[in-house]
């Protein structure tokens, strides 16, 4: 198995959408490729962090635990009083800071090509270039990280390119959804957060 295929399989595996045979191939590859194994561990940690923020209500004693972890002082500062009066907002702010640092850290460490989407059967990968061939149709959203995208056929969904570029569309190309280009780590962070909470809102 090539590393670029393993990267695609990692995302599907963490989402629980990878077939059993493909999962076994991925596990064998991870035991043989230290670079892919390190990338998988990073993705697994980030996935666990994103799932952690899906808790709609913080525990009742979370504010008290946060306050106890702060260094004591003889004279409470004004911001400490504000934190005591707004424990839920303070907890949410701490979660956001942890998420941001984690995403930025993973962004800086991971520079390999990553391709994700529900329909990758007709997608062609050549080096760092992802191609939707002429005469082929890809159904669903397509997300490419650290690579260039060339659409010659049909894409029935949104195209999101993170830290890459979109080759000018050919006359035969057709993209039904939006084209989004994200170039900076902070933009990517807000894209992930908005996408995640958008999914929560849609599911509720």
Automatic annotation (TrEMBL):
Residues 3-36 form the Putative zinc-finger domain. Pfam families: zf-HC2. InterPro entries: Anti_sigma_zinc_sf (IPR041916), Znf_put (IPR027383). Belongs to the zinc-associated anti-sigma factor (ZAS) superfamily. Anti-sigma-W factor family. This is Anti-sigma-W factor RsiW. It comes from Cohnella luojiensis.
């Amino acid at each position: 198995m090539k590393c670029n295929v393993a990267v695609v399989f990692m995302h599907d595996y963490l989402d629980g959408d990878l077939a059993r045979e493909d999962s076994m191939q991925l596990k064998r590859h991870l035991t043989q490729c230290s670079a892919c194994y390190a990338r998988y561990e990073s993705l697994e940690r980030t996935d666990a962090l994103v799932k952690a923020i899906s808790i709609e209500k913080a525990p009742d004693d979370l504010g008290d635990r946060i306050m106890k972890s702060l260094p004591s002082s003889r004279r409470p500062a004004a911001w400490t009083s504000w934190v005591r009066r707004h424990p839920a907002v303070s907890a949410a702010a701490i979660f956001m800071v942890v998420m941001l640092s984690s995403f930025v850290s993973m962004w800086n460490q991971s520079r390999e090509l990553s391709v994700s989407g529900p329909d990758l059967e007709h997608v062609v990968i050549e080096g760092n270039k992802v191609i939707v061939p002429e005469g082929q149709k890809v159904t669903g959203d397509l997300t490419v990280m650290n690579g260039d995208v060339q659409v010659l056929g049909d894409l029935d969904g949104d195209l999101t390119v993170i830290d890459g570029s979109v080759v000018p569309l050919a006359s035969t190309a057709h993209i039904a959804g939006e084209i989004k280009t994200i170039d900076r780590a902070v933009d990517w962070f807000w894209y992930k957060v908005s996408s995640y909470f958008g999914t929560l809102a849609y599911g509720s």
